[in-house]
Amino acid sequence: MPKVTIYSTPTCSYCKMTKTFFNEHNIEYVEKDISRDDKAREEAVAKSHQMSVPIIEIDDQIIVGFDQEKLSALLGVV
User: How far apart are the first and last CA of the chain?
Assistant: First the structure.
């Protein structure tokens, strides 16, 4: 199983969509709330060079935004 981390905020609708996608496909993930965790925010920006959320890390791959097609491909879900 790949290591999955989502950098998110509580008010982000695309973050909620991504977490729903993970839950529907039984994907285990670590959530880091960048609105409350300065270190996580710095990590997310350093990895993605973006200030938007969600930022999803799957192993060493970075996805910015909810891209269901790319997530499905990387996670092997149909």
Answer: 15
In angstroms, the Cα distances linking 74 to 2, 46, 56, 60 are: 9, 21, 11, 11
CA distances from 16 to 46, 50, 60 (A): 23, 19, 22
Rounded distance, CA 40 to CA 44, Å? 6
CA distance 8 to 11: 9
Element (H, E) at 63: strand 61-64
The pLDDT tens digits for 27-36 are: 999 999 999 9
Q: 72 CB contacts (<8 Å, ≥6 apart)?
A: 78
The pTM for the full model equals 0.94
Residue 7's pLDDT is what? Answer: 98
Fold classified for 4-75: Glutaredoxin (3.40.30)
